[in-house]
Amino acid sequence: MLFRQLEYLVALARERHFARAAQSCFVSQPALSEALRKLEEELDVLLVRRGRTYEGLTPEGERIVRWAQRILADRDALKDEVDALRTGLSGRLRIGSVPTASGAVSLLTAPFCAAHPLATVDVVADLRAEDILHQLQNFEIDAGITYLPEEASDQFHTVALYDERYVLLTGVADDLARRSTATWAEASRLPLCLLTRRMQGRRVLDEVFADGGLQPVPRVVTDSVASLFAHVRTGRWASIVPHAWLHVFGVPHGMRAVPLVEPVHTTPIGLVITAREPGSAMARALLETARRTDVAAVLDTLPGHPPL
Predict the structure, then answer these.
(1) What CA–CA distance (Å, rounded) separates 74 from 44?
(2) How far is CA 93 from CA 16, 108, 111, 285, in A?
(3) Which tens digits make up the pLDDT trace of 27-58?
(4) C-alpha pair distances (Å), 48 with each of 21, 28, 242, 262, 279
(5) What is the pLDDT of residues 253-290, one digit of tens each?
(6) Crossing angle of helices 106-115 and 281-292, rounded to 10°
(7) Helix (H, G, I), strand (E, B) or coil at 51
(8) 238, 174 in Cβ contact below 8 A?
(9) What region does 26 belong to: left with phi over 0, alpha with psi -120 to 50, or beta?
């Protein structure tokens, strides 16, 4: 059995298509198919359901692909560990982030890269919270920045980074723009542009509205926080955005960020890695960076705080 065969199997499970899996592995489709057939012969079990096209993995294949993901993750972790012992941490750190928290990712990647100049970072900033946990368990990312679960899980290590709070982003011409605060009820009556309901960031807002007996109907929905800013810029819409994004854009010209009250709602955001030992050297290094970095202190200097 070769690592290459396991890589092909994981790629096929991810892409669900022979040609795309081969392309992602930089081999021809016949070479990938033949390697998988040899793996089936070595294990004496059918892994792939084949017809005229890819039809999925067999139940045995589903089990084997989890082992393959674990073996490949351990191989990569071992290489990173050896490199760290020899020349310092190097290799690629893979971070997944929910969009609402992606504006704060640089507050961790900057000190991480300063401490580990041989390492590179790959950030995927458009994942749903449930996708982050899934990809962590499947070894597709090393760490996630996401909403922290209410109940602790022994499958993950977490570090709280900051409490996400919310501001009403509106044009300067709006009456609420001249206020020091706005209520959620007042915001619900505006023509809103919000995140799509598929995203936990939107579901958090819906829960706050529902607790107040409110049911706003947004005129525009999007899966991009940057798109929220762009729509508010037109002067036709208002939006509710996480305050951490003011770290990226500030308060753009022609807009105002008004703290939302009644209630003042916050949601914990944190770093999540798997608890599996010894685990990824990259993930452990990022965890140490997060413990040394006061992300909340930086974000607390941003505008949009409700007055005391």
Answers:
(1) 24
(2) 25, 12, 13, 10
(3) 999 999 999 999 999 999 999 988 777 888 99
(4) 13, 18, 44, 55, 29
(5) 999 999 999 999 999 999 999 987 777 888 989 999 99
(6) 110
(7) coil
(8) yes
(9) left
Cα distances from 74 to residues 6, 91, 106, 139, 264, in angstroms, run 13, 14, 27, 9, 44
Task: Count CB-CB contacts under 10 A for residue 20.
Answer: 15
- The pLDDT tens digits of the residues spanning 136-161 come to 988 889 999 999 987 767 889 999 99
Task: Give ∠ CA 185-191-194 in degrees, rounded to 5.
Answer: 85
- CA 278/CA 286 separation, integer angstroms: 15
Backbone angles phi, psi at 223, to 5 degrees: -105, 15
Is pLDDT of 249 > 90?
Answer: no
d(CA 140, CA 151): 24
- Contact status, residue 259 vs residue 182, Cβ threshold 8 Å: yes
pTM comes to 0.73
Structure tokens at 98: 């929910």
Q: Would you state the pLDDT for residue 204? A: 93
